Amino acid sequence: MLKQERRERTRAYILLSIGLIITLYPFVLMVMSSFMTPSQLLNNPSMIIPMPWTWSGYTGLFKDLDVLLLFKNTLIIAGSVTLLNLFFDSLAAFALAKLKFPGKNALFGFMLFTLMIPGVLFFIPTYTMLYNWGWVNHYRALIIPSFVQFYSIFLMKQFMEQIPDEVIEAARIDGASDPVIYARIIIPMSVPVLATIAILTFMGAWNDFFGPLLYLRSPSMWTVQLGLQMFSSSIPGQNIQVLWAGEVVITLPILIVFLFLQKYFIRAFTNVSFK
User: Fold this and answer.
1) Confidence at 51, pLDDT banded by 50, 70, 90
2) For 183-189, which contacts have Cβ atoms below 8 Å and span 24 or more sequence positions?
3) Of the CATH numbers 1.10.3720.10, 1.20.140.10, 3.40.50.720, 3.90.180.10, which one belongs to the domain with range 65-268?
4) What is the mean pLDDT of residues 68-84?
5) Could you tell me the pTM of the whole model?
């Protein structure tokens, strides 16, 4: 039995190691390529270790591309969308999970139905509506339509339903109102799912390319994804080392957010018991 367990554990470690190498290889290749010269990248694309190492990609990133402005613009959009999602989606999830009102099941069923509709079908009507409102070339065209996401509400609702009703009833007996219960009981106990939604929403807003391409016209309002794409399409092959450095830099915020919130991310998708 002991030998069998060791063999199974060894196989598991081998498979996990292979998966780790496959997962990390593109990221390592991206980082290494950011330290290469343009001639190395164009003439020897299979090279992994830079020979010699150069910082020209990173210096060019701040010299030829106003990356700090792009970061500020993207952070405004991604941060606003994330905070608004956490607030409004958690309110909706709390109402669907713990409050009783007419039509609750029908409303939740309608939300689930909308999740089955491809989002691309809404691009044209949404753009027409926002254009008629004069929102094109404004950040609100990217923030306001995204401040509620039905998938986030669904995920929060499923998590909040695990919170015992006895806790909420005890708070009501003590005189707590629904806003107090939401702020002092539901939110502190829902930190894992809130962190998960924060990660997913921030990643989606930070990596969004089509939205800024569609609504932002002024270069001073471009996001990192749009700015890097416009910079890369000027002359093919030119400043290729800057593009690799830009990919590394714009990946770091997502990596940092995930590293800080990963323990909550894991807890949100595992069985959580409340006492």
Assistant:
1) confident
2) 186/90, 186/94, 186/98, 186/160, 187/90, 189/163, 189/274
3) 1.10.3720.10
4) 92
5) 0.82
